[in-house]
Amino acid sequence: MPDKKFTQKMKQNWKDIARKWQSYTPPVKPSKAELYFYEQKIKKLTQKQKNLKALVLGATPEFRGLLAKYKIDTTILDNNKISVQAMTSLIKKKNPKEKVKIGNWFKIPLKPKTFDLVLSDTAQDNIKYKDFPKFFENIHKVIKPTGFWLSGHVHLEKKNYITFKTYIKMYHTNPKEFKSKQTAIGRFFQLAYEPEFYNYKTRIFNFTKVDAKVKQLVKKGQLPKPALKDLCFNIDYAQPIIPLPELISLLNKKFKILDQMQDKSHPAMIIRWSAVLKPRT
Ligand SMILES: C[S@@+](CC[C@H](N)C(=O)[O-])C[C@H]1O[C@@H](n2cnc3c(N)ncnc32)[C@H](O)[C@@H]1O
């Protein structure tokens, strides 16, 4: 059975993150271009097929709004009722055909081969790296052989990596740059490969450790106070993150990539990858 303690900790984290969702920007949530990419696929499918059934892993309001637009029969599967409630309050167009199931992705309480569409955004950030294959297998199980997985991911971009020292230097040189949330998030993820924050075995990037180091520098007077707002995520969070080729090779075992896109609208988007996947039979 996948790591229970980790799932429990993630559950706690998301209670808080849902509240912050509105202030977040891509790359930690789907961008307009990515949503457009998914919408084209959904639109085409609705033209070909009636009574589509969709499953959303997590509670991403942007996906749920999209499925509402096409009046698609939707199931939300999330293990955190509070997070789902908070995310639901952010949806502009409610879907009368949406039902929420509170449950674990590792014990999917759903029949096999049920869904024409599965949607998820950065879902495996919430599970241990060692459990990725099992997670992909579970999605493969519930999707129809003719179905699709619309799947958004965040990956480790080694060529983008900067040290903590460089990160701080960048802030000193141009603090204004970090006032843009998207740039700040992008810069933060550039730190993902720093040995002090990245565990090469578990593949976990620890946000909390970055925050702690920034707070230390502010305390010592080596960074100005606004750095607390500009540089800190202010959450107790750590997530697995792996390079894209490795992620693709894991996905390839169970799925075929039909289409893919990388939003190039902002340098921070370099860590994002979206795909339309088809289960291998
Ligand atoms: C999919 S993820 C990433 C953010 C995402 N875009 C969303 O839906 O909020 C976050 C959601 O996944 C849920 N979650 C995390 N681990 C889970 C698990 N093992 N089973 C079911 N839901 C889980 C959390 O409660 C949270 O609402």
Protein architecture, described:
- The chain is of the alpha/beta class and 281 residues long.
- It folds into two domains: 4-155 and 242-279, Rossmann fold (3-Layer(aba) Sandwich); 158-240, no CATH class.
- 39% of the residues lie in helices and 21% in strands.
- The protein is built from ten helices and ten strands.
- It has helices spanning 4-20, 32-48, 61-69, 81-88, 132-142, 164-173, 181-190, 207-219, 227-231, 244-252; strands at 53-57, 73-78, 98-102, 115-121, 143-154, 198-199, 204-206, 238-240, 255-261, 272-279.
- The strands form two sheets. Strands 3-2-1-4-5-10-9 form a seven-stranded mixed sheet, with helices on both faces. Strands 6-7-8 form a three-stranded antiparallel sheet.
- Strand 4, helix 5 and strand 5 form a beta-alpha-beta unit.
- Helix 1 packs parallel to helix 4 (81-88).
- The longest helix has 17 residues, at 4-20.
- The chain starts with a helix and ends with a strand.
- The relative contact order is 0.15.
- The mean pLDDT is 94.
- The site of S-adenosylmethionine has 23 residues, from helix 1, helix 4 and strand 4.
- Residues 7, 10-11, 14, 29, 57-60, 78-80, 83, 87, 104-106, 120-123, 126-127 line the site of S-adenosylmethionine.
